[in-house]
Amino acid sequence: MGKTSAAVKNRYNAKTYDHINVLVKKGEKERYKKIAEEKGLSLSQLFVNAVEEYLAK
Questions:
Q1: Residues 11-41: tens digit of each pLDDT
Q2: Cα end-to-end distance, the chain, whole Å
Q3: How many Cβ atoms are within 10 Å of 1's Cβ, its own excluded?
Q4: Which of 14, 31, 49, 53 lies 20 to 30 A from 41 at CA?
Q5: pTM of the full structure
Q6: CA torsion sign, 21 to 50 to 18 to 39?
Q7: Do residues 22 and 16 lie in contact, with contact meaning Cβ atoms separated by under 8 Å?
């Protein structure tokens, strides 16, 4: 198997996913990123999980 080009990945992501931009205070991104890594998640998945948990309440 060959390497998938960035252009192919970008087309797939554009077709498959919606994008949401989240603004956080300086320094918070690194804190969230560290938490996500500790849990074995991507930063995106950490936020999705948090939103889903919030909505389930």
A1: 999 999 999 999 999 999 999 999 999 999 9
A2: 44
A3: 3
A4: 14
A5: 0.76
A6: positive
A7: no
> How many residues appear in the chain?
57
Which two three-digit tokens encode residue 9? Answer: 């990945």
DSSP line for 2-15: PPPPHHHHHHHHHH
**Which 8-state DSSP code applies to residue 42?**
-
Segments in 1-57 forming alpha helices (H): 6-16, 28-38, 43-56
47/17 Cα distance (integer angstroms): 15
CA distance 33 to 13: 21
